[in-house]
Structure formats: C-alpha cells, structure tokens
Amino acid sequence: NEPTRPIPRPHERGAFDDWTTGVDVHHAKWGVGRITRISHNPGQTSAVIQFAKYGEKVFILEFAPVTRLSE
C-alpha cells in the first residue's frame, strides 16, 4: 500500500491575506514591530518582523501572538 497524500485544498481567504510589508504589529513578548517580509501560504503565513530593541524575528502568524496596529 502506498501512503496516502493529503488532498490540497483550494486557497481559503486567511486572516492575514491583507497584511503586507510595512504593517505595524504588536507581539505579546517583543512589543511593537514592523513586517519587513511576508510570505502568504494557506495556514502558514510566514513573516519577518523588525523590532527596535530585539532585531528581526521570524513568525508563522497563525501561531504567533501578534495583532495588527496599522491599516
């Protein structure tokens, strides 16, 4: 028997689809930062966020304690 592969689902609009570079965010531990790079993948939106005191950090936004500050 061959292992089963997950069936790809069509892209569903995610909570972070309208987040782009330049968006200001607040992280529960690191404070206020700005998105410098973002890669949209369903369920795994990867973002590099620059924090003034802590430098760059990489997060999967679906799992990170971040909120958007700017529109």
Descriptive report:
This protein has 71 residues and is an all-beta fold. Helix content is 0%, strand content 39%. It contains no helices and 5 strands. The protein has a 5-stranded antiparallel sheet, with no helix packed on it. It is elongated.
- Strand runs, count: 5
Encode the helix/strand succession as letters. Answer: EEEEE
The residue ranges in which pLDDT falls below 50 over 5 or more consecutive positions are none
Q: What percentage of the residues does DSSP assign to strands (E)? A: 35-45%
Q: Which structural category fits the helices and strands?
A: mainly beta
* Largest sheet entry: 5 strands, antiparallel
Q: Indicate the multimeric state.
A: single chain
What's the arrangement of strands in the largest beta sheet?
A: 4-3-2-1-5
What global shape is seen?
Answer: elongated
Alpha carbon gap, first and last residue: 51 Å
Q: Could you tell me the radius of gyration in angstroms?
A: 15 Å
Question: What is the averaged pLDDT score?
Answer: 87
**Total count of helical runs of at least 4 residues:** 0
User: Residue share in helices?
Assistant: under 10%
